[in-house]
Amino acid sequence: MIEQLFGSKTRVKLLQLFYSNPNRSFYVREITRKIDEQINSVRRELSNLLNIGIIVSDNNNNRLYYEVNQRFEYYEPLQQIFGGDMATAQAIVGSDKDALKQLGNVELAALTGQFTRDESTGVDVVLVGNFNQTQLNHYIADLEKQEGKELRFVVMSMDDYRYREQIKDRFVATLAEAKVQILVDKNNILNKE
User: Fold this and answer.
1) Can you state the angle between helices 9-20 and 39-52, rounded to 10 degrees?
2) E strand or H helix at 127, and its extent?
3) 46 to each of 53, 65, 97, how far by Cα in Å?
4) How far is CA 98 from CA 56, 104, 124, 139, in A?
5) 13-34 pLDDT tens trace
6) What was the pLDDT predicted at 116?
7) Among residues 126, 129, 135, which one has the least CA distance to residue 103?
8) Domains of the chain, with CATH numbers?
């Protein structure tokens, strides 16, 4: 039904991908892998979404990256329609709530760095909580396999995070200002509102 309303299956998958990952940028080949559609139909729909203003593009390292335009006038209604349905657009391992639950008590899970093209923190994955080390190693390995590269990550306990926050640690302050994609934030640690 949604495909009929929005014109094409590819467009719906793209909207679900972008709205499920509001601070994440993707390049064309990455998008085709994630939504499992033909590159020509993806390019056509990206062009349509770009012309409408739903997404924006940026050229970086000879790659054209696309991300959702959070200033688009209908961003909020589209976010309500497409942002919550993770079943169809399982964009990354990190967004899989079951995978995160297996890690232990996850207080905060956030993606930054290569995921958002904001290198200010110097890391790609931030995890705060108490973790099962074996499950954590599997999670990171799966995420690296899916991304096809080694990831930089920081893991710390909630006490460590609070202490670093209290002493105004530079990493924690930079993280609070960085462009991040929040996967879990039980205590609104990085509430960007």
Assistant:
1) 70
2) strand 125-131
3) 10, 11, 28
4) 31, 11, 20, 11
5) 999 999 888 878 888 998 998 8
6) 83
7) 135
8) 2-89 (1.10.10.10), 94-185 (no CATH)
